[in-house]
TrEMBL record:
Residues 30-271 form the AB hydrolase-1 domain. The keyword Hydrolase applies. Coiled coil: none annotated. InterPro entries: AB_hydrolase_1, AB_hydrolase_fold. Keywords: Hydrolase. One of its GO terms (molecular function) is hydrolase activity. Pfam families: Abhydrolase_1. This is Alpha/beta fold hydrolase. Transmembrane segments: none annotated.
Length: 284
């Protein structure tokens, strides 16, 4: 099976621009959408390239690149909302009525919101950190504070500090990873998306909006998630600390939580084999 970058790369032309994605596995197998997170230099390929071979043995894997992160064409509007719209459009264009989904961090938030608003779309859901609210830990967390500092004034040193906060094992932050992430992080679309999501001004506006809003935050509506849900978390996550898992674990009716020791925010990378085994058993 070809799970290389070139061998899996695809393009889908839509009336909103080109959506780019990676596809691997039997086209007749159950579909599995892999939804990436946010942060400097992120792409769906970089989040999930190490897991694609394992999941493609059992599923038709589709790694969608969200608009605004430097791979798919950018859309106007809020990146998280655009990501949810892109998933809907993507599924419509490919004729996929429903699918299992794995969402890393922001991708998990996208998956949860889809499960709340369009439950027929999400057959099963796996989240990797990021979902819920800070119940006991400070907000913004250490990792998000470092991300905010990078968004306000990007430079290579800030990128390295943020990358080191993403993992338990600092040896994973190699020179190659830093170079790869830096090259992608300075893409104009990616910089604009980062400022819109994490810049100090954007964060302050979000806080003011939430304080004045009459609607509850998305995570307070998680009792509406009807599909079986697996919450995965790194015990040493400094971006979305494990206390965030308590609300979704309690509110989602059919939720289970798996916490991986000696692991940070990138569970699918840092606890690769255990994560894959846990997710494949859940999806089966």
């Amino acid at each position: 099976m070809d799970v290389t970058y070139e061998g899996t790369r695809r393009e889908l032309t839509t009336d909103k621009g080109v959506l780019r994605y990676h596809e691997a596995g039997d086209p007749d197998a159950p579909p599995l959408l892999l939804l990436h997170g946010s942060g400097p230099g992120v792409t769906g390929w970089r989040n999930f390239r190490g897991n694609l071979g394992a999941f493609a043995e059992h599923h038709r894997c589709l790694v969608l690149e969200f608009p605004g992160f430097g791979v798919s064409d950018a859309w106007e509007g809020m990146p998280v909302l655009n990501a949810g719209k892109a998933v809907n459009l993507f599924m419509n264009e490919l004729g996929i009525d429903s699918a299992a989904m794995i969402g890393n961090s922001m991708g998990g938030v996208v998956g949860v919101n889809l499960a709340i608003r369009k439950p027929e779309r999400v057959r099963k859901l796996v989240t990797i950190g990021g979902v819920g609210g800070n119940l006991f830990s400070p907000s913004p967390s250490e990792g998000l504070t470092l991300l905010q500092e990078f968004a306000d004034d990007p430079d290579r040193d800030k990128l390295v500090r943020w990358l080191r906060a993403m993992v338990f094992d600092k040896s994973l932050v190699t020179d190659d990873l830093i170079a790869e992430r830096w090259e992608a992080a300075i893409d104009p679309d990616a910089l604009a998306t980062g400022r819109a999501m994490y810049g100090s001004a954007a964060f302050e506006m979000q806080q003011q909006f939430m304080a004045a809003a009459d609607t509850p935050p998305y995570w307070a509506m998680m009792h509406k998630v009807a599909c079986p849900t697996l919450l995965t978390w790194g015990r040493d996550d400094r971006v979305s600390p494990p206390d965030m898992a308590l609300a979704p674990m309690r509110l989602i009716p059919d939720a289970q939580l798996h916490v991986f020791p000696r692991c940070g925010h990138w569970v699918m990378i840092e606890a690769k084999a255990a994560f894959e085994a846990t997710v494949l058993a859940f999806l089966a």
